[in-house]
Amino acid sequence: MLPKTLQSKLEKELGEGRIKRDEKLALHTSWRIGGLTRFWFEAKNQDELVKAVIMSRKLSLPLFVLGGGTNVLIGDKTFPGLVIKNNSGQIKILGVGGKIVKGERQDSRVLVEADSGVVFNRLVRFTLDEALSNFESFLGQPGSVGGAIYINAHFMKDKKYVGDYVSSVKLLDSNNQVKEVGLDYLQFGYDYSKIQETQDIVLSATFNFTRFVKEKVWERANQTTFYRQTTQPSGYPTAGCTFRNISYAQALFIPTPEYTTSAGYLIDQCGLKGKVIGGAQISDQHANFILNVKNASAQDVLDLINLCKQKVKEKFNIELHEEVVLKGVF
Length: 330
Ligand SMILES: Cc1cc2nc3c(=O)[nH]c(=O)nc-3n(C[C@H](O)[C@H](O)[C@H](O)COP(=O)(O)OP(=O)(O)OC[C@H]3O[C@@H](n4cnc5c(N)ncnc54)[C@H](O)[C@@H]3O)c2cc1C
Prior knowledge:
- The chain is α+β, with helices and mostly antiparallel strands and 330 residues long.
- It folds into three domains: 6-86, Uridine Diphospho-n-acetylenolpyruvylglucosamine Reductase, domain 2 (2-Layer Sandwich); 91-230, Uridine Diphospho-n-acetylenolpyruvylglucosamine Reductase, domain 3, CATH 3.30.465.10; 233-327, UDP-N-acetylenolpyruvoylglucosamine reductase, C-terminal domain (Uridine Diphospho-n-acetylenolpyruvylglucosamine Reductase, domain 1).
- Helix content is 28%, strand content 29%.
- It is built from nine helices and 18 strands.
- The protein has helices spanning 6-14, 46-58, 120-129, 145-151, 183-186, 214-231, 248-253, 263-269, 298-316, and strands spanning 20-24, 36-43, 63-66, 72-74, 79-86, 91-101, 104-115, 132-133, 154-155, 160-161, 166-172, 178-181, 201-211, 238-241, 276-277, 280-282, 289-292, 325-327.
- The strands form five sheets. Strands 6, 7, 8, 11, 12 and 13 form a six-stranded antiparallel beta sheet that branches.
- A hairpin with a 2-residue loop joins strand 15 and strand 16.
- It is globular and about 65 Å long.
- The two termini are 37 Å apart.
- 40% of the residues are buried.
- The model has no long low-confidence stretch (mean pLDDT 95).
- Bound molecules: flavin-adenine dinucleotide.
- Flavin-adenine dinucleotide binds next to strand 3, helix 4, strand 9, strand 13 and strand 14.
């Protein structure tokens, strides 16, 4: 008898016809960049996500989970494993913590659970429509819930981090155990969660909210989108900020004007705004954004990244670190 192919082994577990071959990853990233993947699977819910990760690990196939693809630079060469596109999409109000005052219920804390594949902005809009306060600063935030937990997504203008509102996270750990973890495990920091150092896969996250007034929460949230629209470049595919900002101590040491920690400021000072390599360009509006202006390859973007690092090191003696995550094969 012929040995089963990897594809048929995956399909036996995940469903006939559910594994695609040679999917173009550029179709699934906001940069519109990325080579092929040998195998591609779209998980519709948490169970499918868990099964696909476990199966891939059993078969020793290289693996990564893609949320919105808005913070990844995927290499141009074929990825030799399985990419799981996370489309799990449930949002649930879990519980309301309040009290009865003079016969009337006064809700205060409200817990909302979202699958990791939920589009983050959909979750934000859901909470605003439910008159829940805490996510006003995240209206217009691209990506998925899983991606937001991975990087501890933030809105720097308001100094708000997604991790500040996490109550707990359900994940699949490297031993294929599903477990619930809290803030002590996740260790959120600037552009950081513990998940970046483990093989954990986020399945869902539960967030804290406070009941407020619907018109007011929408009003505050709309101010965020206005700020995004007027300060961020638009019109070309991008992954948002390419580099992490520098520390306050580094800003004091240089010193930068008003001690700004903006990586974009340093890149700008190196004269790199508007710099083009191949089809990629450093935005001339916001130097921390790299734009795909003309069929850029991952290598074009990587060359710009390395140029920024080299020039900033020469001029300021500072090492820049990517905020975007490099995946696949370069
Ligand atoms: C125009 C634009 C503006 C942006 N503005 C902001 C901003 O204001 N603030 C901000 O913080 N970011 C911003 N970003 C960056 C990006 O949107 C965030 O980092 C976002 O949280 C990424 O989520 P994602 O689902 O797209 O992650 P992906 O790009 O799909 O993945 C990023 C990393 O997370 C991992 N990952 C994804 N899902 C899971 C999971 N379920 N379990 C484990 N690991 C997982 C991936 O494997 C990968 O390593 C912006 C991006 C763009 C394009």
